[in-house]
Write a structure and sequence with these properties.
107 residues, mainly alpha, 434 Repressor (Amino-terminal Domain), elongated
Amino acid sequence: MKEIMTLFGMRIKELRKNKGLSQEEVAEKVNISSKYLSRIEMGQHFPSIDTLVNLADVLKVELKDFFEFAHETDDPKELKRIMDGILQEADRDKLKLLVKVARAMVR
């Protein structure tokens, strides 16, 4: 769970920086302290759903965007689990394309 909180916090920080906003600016707009936002970004705290919604509004992203951090993990088991999920969702044409891309990458 700690790794997920850390990855989540890193993702919040990444999205904030991509918008060119400081912690103080975001915290003020979300109505939380900059210290609390810092703790979120360091993976020490997880925000309430209300704070998540407000963060998404301020950063102009969808809630799902906060959780797109799977590529940040180095754990091979986690990466395989993520890949299995992608494969399960893909239709026949997408599977064919994924195979071509994977083959090209490992050669």
